[in-house]
């Protein structure tokens, strides 16, 4: 775990602000410490693009709390690529707030990725990303870590398949010692918070699973759950009474059944993170994941060649009972892509059809001790 001087960063660019932190993109001049296997020596990956996460109101934390944060980040640097990596910590000289150094994901978070790219995301890609997310959540739960703020904004997306299609971020930080909170305080975005938590029970692994179900719904529909509702007391009451987002039927067989299990009102009846990963992996992983990199790269190249032969026609219509199981009077915009020449029939553009209910090398960092 490193404490990095702030002067080591250049081209610092503000990206976004969350409930407890500000996010910046930057270049780390020296870069993180890595282990070169061939040379059998430590080296630095210079001029690396990273993210700086400034934790609000952290300048006055005690030495004990800072050491807890350092230990927290050190424990999390050894996970696979399905969980966002922490490289070290620095301090912003203007506010004196502490800043976490993490990996940069070029496609941003899942919320904005869905918003910007939904109509071009195939089912095979959706399932690949869910497979990564489920594996990352399994790793956290195996270490008895509960995310407690699990939603699409805390899932990062990369175009680098060797890195990871999706990685979980911000796990536990919103409930860290920096906030001086207690176990009874609720964090998160209401539609993703499990009903038992809204009713005052403690966060559990099952509450993360509920959130995973909402993420499945979001990837299926292109909308955040209850996007058309105010996040208020009335919505909380209805969620506790059993309301869930409307079911869309244009999903692979078994997908909806698994999603409903995830958001079951009884936490004990929800699957584990491993069960979810295993379900996806049984029908999607192994031999299919091997060729995914080639398929996506080929598809993107093919799309760029054919893009000039496509027209986009926006059609506004109401979703009927064949699409949604319950009444929904909100107009939906459907983007229909029509080829001016021939329809694409090769394997690159076919959506995956199956019943999902049918049954690396990591860099090495040097521990740097310092006394706060």
Automatic annotation (TrEMBL):
Residues 9-284 form the Protein kinase domain. Gene3D superfamilies: Transferase(Phosphotransferase) domain 1 (1.10.510.10). Pfam families: PK_Tyr_Ser-Thr (PF07714). Keywords: Kinase, Transferase. PROSITE patterns: PROTEIN_KINASE_DOM. This is Kinase-like domain-containing protein. It comes from the Eukaryota. GO terms for molecular function: ATP binding; protein serine/threonine kinase activity. It comes from Rhizophagus clarus.
